[in-house]
Design brief:
155 residues; 5-stranded mixed sheet; binds zinc ion; alpha/beta; globular; 36% helix
């Protein structure tokens, strides 16, 4: 039998977190999302995460790219059913590479406005899909300073 390569220093906790956070995968923002969830949302030290580049964006693609919408929806439905999720928190972030690369319409489009509109559309879908689950949406962005700070707005 192979030897264990590494043993985590953290105790295993089998209790399911009640909150699922839907975010982008960008590692620069991730620890800020985790701190926000723990210290502001009071979601506990652990939450479930559903992370893909661009975060909730697939949930806005029901008509445009239904296979992306369905991929995301099926996995989220399975997660909520298996884990008994009570709260879904969707967080978008400034300077998201996924949104930058997939700008639709005029080049002058305000990316933050687009992301906030997507958060709202996605939240409407989520509330329809999961009537018993509370849904919240936030936008994370930088505040000038040395070093810059990450701040969160409810949207
Ligand atoms: Zn991103």
């Amino acid at each position: 039998m192979a030897e264990d390569l590494y043993e985590s220093t953290l105790d295993w906790d089998a209790a399911r977190p009640s909150t699922t956070i839907i975010t982008c995968v960008d590692g620069r923002w991730y620890r800020h999302f985790q701190e926000f969830a723990r210290d502001y949302l009071k979601a506990g030290a652990r939450t479930d995460y559903l992370a893909v580049p661009g975060g909730i964006e697939p949930l806005t693609l029901m008509d445009l790219v239904p296979k992306d919408f369905n991929f995301f929806r099926r996995r989220l439905e399975a997660l909520v059913a298996a884990h008994g999720t009570k709260r879904i928190v969707a967080i978008a972030h400034q300077d998201c590479a996924w949104y930058k690369d997939r700008k639709l319409g005029p080049v002058t489009i305000n990316m933050r406005e687009r992301q906030v509109a997507d958060l709202r559309r996605a939240a409407a879908h989520l509330r329809e899909m999961f009537p018993g689950v509370s849904v919240e949406t936030y936008f994370a962005h930088l505040k000038n300073g040395t070093p810059p700070r990450v701040v969160f707005d409810a949207v």
